[in-house]
Specification:
alpha/beta; Alkaline Phosphatase, subunit A; Gyrase A, domain 2; 2 domains; 11-stranded mixed sheet; 4-stranded antiparallel sheet; 19 strands; 37% helix; binds zinc ion
């Protein structure tokens, strides 16, 4: 009897082991990251009634929505956003402190993906600065997938914006591709092992951007259907360069030179070409067809260009999202047909949201406003009066003032006293709610979650020394108050959509607060790979189902 029991236990154990050995680690065939630049969370519902059934509604109905996903750092800009999504980390740790910053050790301005040790591949523009992910200090979930599969997994990034393609794809990507402003074709960098494959050359030879430009930007639906926007000719919008008024139809075709491709990037056609490239990449590289899980990072940048120009209450943004909704629907059915239903894991999120246009809010009796660069000029004068020196302030980026460290130390000035003067002066400004010495944050009277967001956003080598927090609904803007922007801690900038869909994702939604840093931690748990090495997020338990 005893022997029989032991024999049965052994049999069961043997069966269990053989099953696990045969099945291996379970992973989807393909992971698709869809980051929509400047998509406010509320766009899911603002335009809901006009969405079709195959795009956002399919993701909401058949997938899982984390309804209260918040960005947990400032500044809420594109490069830190894309980096946080894929690294699960914050600027303090991952080092992407803004789209631009000043390096405090050299005093030089840096663009997030600048790298003059590499060269551009596939561009005809000699002025195109060379790029790579080398300024990113941590690994990404895409890197970790490559590491976990001994480079068996393929990783690609596609986007119109260089930073939105490069940073998600990480350090170990096979390649990242982004648009060449001078030709409308896609290029890459010598940093990657596969910067100019033949399928990409064939794609570029189709001159898709030029064909799309010829179609101009017309409304998708009859003009009377656009119920969620102000009149088309509202005064809160900005025309394309070379265009007379910011109204439909936008005749992109009639624009010339660089403004032609720049305008193209700000139309829904920019999303069309990005999805076209994402299809070509899947086919060219056979993504999702191998034995390892592959990862395709798609970032849609046109939503941001148009958002900056027209603002959230424009017919342009309403049309942008209605068209994007249809494009997402088409792309999902493409993935169903190529990779297979339930065999790919897709997540959709945004790198940040956007404010309402402050002038629109003022006209509607809401408190709002802008901080213009006059404050910086006054601050410089104030410091000159106090110290007798010019050129103490080096720059204002990411709502932070940088000081000229090299000049201050050479001139033997009292650095602590200078910061005190700056804080004292800025506190007297009506635009500003809080001012904090970033090296003495413990002294600043910042409420949560703002305090944590400032701490998370502060990188000693790449951030300024004094943080400025404006009043709600205020942002930095000099010149006419048209369109919109982002970058602040406020919910309109920091509350982002987060939808999960496909492989092992249950249907449902949660109102529990989660953070942008949780996305990479959740992906790591789902894919059974190590978290990125600067990840501070936690897996979102709800989407693991029962
Ligand atoms: Zn952005």
């Amino acid at each position: 009897m005893k022997h029989l029991r032991a024999f049965i236990i052994l049999l069961i154990m043997g069966a269990a082991y053989s099953v696990s050995a045969k099945d291996g680690v379970e992973r989807p065939k393909l992971v698709v990251g869809l980051v929509i630049d400047q998509m406010r969370w509320d766009y899911l519902y603002r335009y809901y009634d006009l969405y079709g059934s195959t795009g956002f509604k399919r993701l909401l109905k058949d997938g899982f929505s984390c309804e209260n996903t918040m960005i947990n750092y400032v500044p809420t800009f594109t490069a830190p956003g894309h980096t946080c999504i894929y690294s699960g980390s914050v600027p303090s740790i991952h080092g992407i402190a803004g789209n631009n910053w000043i390096d405090n050790t050299t005093g030089k301005g840096v663009y997030c993906t600048d790298d003059n040790t590499v060269h551009m591949v596939g561009t005809t523009d000699p002025a195109a600065p060379p790029m790579s992910p080398r300024n990113l200090l941590t690994s990404t979930i895409t890197d970790e997938l490559r590491l976990a599969t001994n480079m068996g997994s393929k990783v690609y990034g596609v986007a119109i914006k260089d930073r939105s393609s490069i940073l998600p794809a990480g350090h170990m990507a096979n390649a990242a591709y982004w648009i060449d402003d001078s030709t409308g074709s896609f290029n890459s960098s010598s940093y990657y092992s596969n910067p100019n494959p033949t399928w990409l050359q064939a794609f570029n030879n189709r001159h898709i951007a030029d064909s799309l430009i010829k179609l101009n930007w017309e409304l998708l639906l009859p003009a009377t259907s656009y119920s969620q926007s102000l009149e088309d000719a509202s005064r809160y919008e900005r025309s394309f360069k070379g265009e007379k008024a910011p109204i439909f139809p936008h005749k992109i075709e009639s624009l010339t030179g660089k403004s032609r491709y720049n305008a193209f990037k700000a139309t829904p056609a920019g999303n069309t070409i990005t999805f076209d490239l994402a299809r070509a990449c899947i086919e060219g590289e056979q993504l999702g067809a191998g034995k390892n899980a592959d990862f395709l990072c798609i970032s849609l940048s046109s939503t941001d260009y148009a958002g900056h120009q027209f603002g959230p209450n424009s017919v342009e943004i309403e049309d942008m999202y209605l068209r994007l909704d249809r494009e997402i629907g088409d792309y999902l059915s493409y993935l169903d047909n190529t990779v297979g239903k339930g065999k790919y894991l897709l997540f959709l999120t945004a790198d940040h949201g956007a404010a309402h246009n402050p002038q629109f809010l003022i006209d509607e009796e809401l408190p709002a406003g802008v901080m213009n660069n006059g404050i910086t000029a006054e601050l410089k004068q104030y410091l000159k009066a106090k110290t007798g020196r010019d050129s103490i302030v080096k720059g204002f980026e990411n709502y932070q003032y940088y000081i000229d460290e090299q000049f201050i130390s050479k001139a033997g000035l009292d650095r602590e006293q200078i910061k005190k003067y700056m804080v004292e002066f800025l506190k007297g400004k009506k635009e500003i709610a809080y001012v904090a010495d970033l090296e003495r944050l413990y002294e600043a009277q910042l409420p949560e979650p703002l305090k944590t967001m400032v701490v998370n956003g502060y990188n000693r080598n790449r951030s300024g020394v004094v943080q400025v927090v404006l009043n709600p609904a205020w942002y930095e803007n000099s010149g006419p108050i048209t369109g919109t922007t982002h970058g602040t801690w406020n919910p309109y900038d920091s509350h982002i959509p987060l939808l999960w869909f496909g492989w092992h994702v249950p249907k449902g939604a949660s109102n529990k607060v989660c953070h942008m840093t949780d996305i990479a931690a959740t992906l790591a748990a789902m894919l059974h790979v190590q978290q990125p090495n600067g990840c501070i997020g936690e897996p979102i338990e709800e989407i693991f189902g029962k």
